[in-house]
Design a protein that fits this description.
581 residues; TIM Barrel; Oligo-1,6-glucosidase, domain 2; eight-stranded parallel β-sheet; globular
Length: 581
């Protein structure tokens, strides 16, 4: 039965969040493109060893171009022992040997340039690897490299036993301190044991990381996504009597005392000094822009309060990251959320960001369950409409254009330390990030066309025979084809320069309006499997008929169909892009 109503609670929501566009100007390359995150280990394997590599990525760049993407962001491809699959870097100046060589990287950037695709690298500045030359020299007593890391004396308890310096915890459970006999002290590792934290209170470390940034910029990269940036600094222990203080309990319910979430990380996250290091890195990026006119972009990964996130944009005359990642559509909402919840999550970033800065929209990455799993496969098209047609920068995690879902990874096949460190064969899946990292699905052949190996580093997800690029290319209608159409529509001046207003039309239907110089588009997403008739004239200056421009693959409407704006019929989970006539 169709419902025709506008809920009373929506009155406040219907006031909308009108975003005024800046005067029309030529946008920077990064403002109008789509960033496509590639997890190199899982994208394409060129040599049959079961592990994705750089040459595999190069072989698929035409696909990237085909779907309308103008920039790829590569998760870490630096030399690493792979305890945390590239986030434990042993050599910041070298390519990981399983992924290829520096020559392979240069071939990738050259081919990308030929296709008009920018390459952005993942920078992991908070820590290195305990197998790095820096750490090994520290253990050998080299004072310079000893001071690259954070060391602290043990505490001896009343029984004479050695204990860690304080209660700080790793993101991967247990103490964030590890003892080394070679130096008679503990080193800090906020992540796995093999990832010793770098000491950013040491100017030599700051200079070293700036050298790393310059090294890769010289090799043609267009910028960096900066990992775990809000962990760079710990509190200055000199302000606490020369010792690092314990962190207070968070009060989180249902977590064990060895779980990172059990503490309130007031001494290990979001220290004020962090922002100024980011501003200094932006200065380095701008040095290169001064040479050739090309803007190099910085994206910062920060899971924090919105007030802390927006500080990364800059302060006063100091420029910071162009894109402090907005994770609200990952952390704040999911399949259970109402249209009002979606509106609130979108409005939050738009409200807090500086008026002259760009928003960005992210619904998935290598650390979170895939978008199609979290929101449900029926909403893939609707969520992609939101991500690509909102004002600001769109970011896609590989496979979101297809609606890829999390793969099943058994305890025996689990390799992610976040899952393995639970030592829990029953509940490990709650923490493991392996399901969102399973190999990309190219076709119905062996290993989904990802690799010719007998065994891939993670198993391919079930159902790949029908959920893959080849099938969706051949289909008359598919998530892939709609994504391509959205990427093309995104270049229209209305979406490049237009204003924005959003409404929760009822509990289930979220809608927004984009308009510019008399042209008006509406995006309407039904979050539930319930039919509705909705009145779009609650938007100002919307009346008469609306015409279907694009529709989700389950929609029975046709492109070009017209409907009264005052009474638009919506099927369950139907999503539409409409133009106001």
């Amino acid at each position: 039965m169709k419902a025709v109503y506008l809920l009373p609670f929506v009155v406040a929501l219907c006031l909308g969040n009108a975003i005024t566009s800046r005067k029309e100007k030529d946008l920077e390359w990064w403002e109008s493109t789509i960033f496509y995150q590639i997890y190199p280990r899982s994208f394409a394997d060129s040599d049959g060893d079961g592990i994705g590599d750089l040459n595999g990525i190069t072989s698929k760049l035409e696909y990237i171009k085909e779907i309308g993407v103008g920039a790829i962001w590569l998760s870490p491809m630096f030399q690493s022992p792979m305890y945390d699959f590239g986030y434990d870097i042993s050599d910041f100046y070298a390519v990981h040997d399983e992924y290829g060589t520096m020559e392979d990287f240069e071939a990738l950037t050259k081919r990308a340039e030929e296709l008009g695709i920018k390459v952005v690298l993942d920078l992991v500045p908070n820590h290195s690897s305990n197998e790095s030359e820096w750490f090994q020299k520290a253990l050998e007593g080299d004072e310079k490299y000893y001071n690259y890391f954070v060391w602290e004396d043990a505490i001896i308890d009343e029984d004479g036993n050695r204990q860690p310096p304080n209660n700080w915890l790793s993101h991967f459970r247990g103490s964030a301190w590890e003892y080394r006999e070679e130096v008679g002290k503990y080193y800090l590792h906020q992540f796995v044991v093999g990832q010793p934290d770098l000491n950013y209170r040491n100017p030599d470390v700051v200079a070293e990381m700036e050298n790393v940034v310059r090294f890769w910029l010289e090799r043609g990269v267009a910028g960096f996504r900066v990992d775990a940036v809000n962990c760079l600094f710990e509190v200055d222990k000199n302000l606490h009597g020369g010792q690092y203080p314990d962190e207070p309990l968070s009060g989180a319910v249902g977590v064990s005392l060895d779980d990172h979430d059990s503490l309130d990380h007031i001494y290990t996250k979001n220290q004020n000094e962090t922002y100024y290091v980011v501003y200094d890195w932006r200065d380095v990026l701008d040095e290169f822009k001064a040479r050739d006119g090309l803007t190099r972009v910085m994206m910062t990964e920060v899971y924090a309060s919105i007030q802390d996130v927006v500080k990364y944009f800059g302060e006063g005359d100091r420029k910071g990251a162009q894109m402090p990642f907005n994770f609200d559509l990952i952390t704040d909402v999911d399949a259970s959320s109402s249209a009002g919840d979606i509106k609130r999550a979108i409005d939050k970033f738009l409200t807090y960001k500086p008026l002259d800065k760009d928003a960005n929209w992210v619904v998935g990455n290598h650390d979170n369950s895939r978008m199609a799993t979290r929101y449900g496969s029926s909403l893939v098209d609707g969520i992609n409409m939101i991500i690509l047609l909102l004002p600001g920068v769109g970011v896609t995690y590989m496979g979101e254009e297809l609606g890829l879902v999390d793969g099943y990874v058994s305890w025996e096949d689990t390799v992610d330390p976040s899952g393995c460190n639970t030592n829990d064969p029953i509940n490990y899946g709650k923490w493991s990030r392996d399901p969102e990292r399973t190999p990309f699905q190219w076709n119905a052949e062996k290993n989904a066309g990802f690799s010719t190996a007998d065994k891939t580093w993670l198993p391919v997800a079930e159902g790949y025979e029908t959920l893959n690029v080849e099938v969706q290319r051949a289909a008359e209608r598919s998530h892939l084809k709609l994504y391509q159409a959205l990427a093309a529509l995104r270049q229209d001046r209305v979406f490049r320069h237009g204003r924005f207003e959003s409404l929760a039309l009822n509990q289930d239907v979220f809608a927004f309006r984009r308009w510019y110089k008399g042209e008006v588009y509406l995006v309407v997403v039904n979050m539930r499997d319930v039919e509705h008739d909705v009145n779009l004239t609650y938007f100002e200056n919307v009346s008469g008929d609306v015409k279907v421009v694009l529709r989700s693959i389950q929609s029975q409407k046709n492109e070009g169909d017209k409907f009264p704006a005052a009474s638009l019929p919506l099927a369950g989970f139907e999503s539409l892009v409409l133009k106001v006539k």
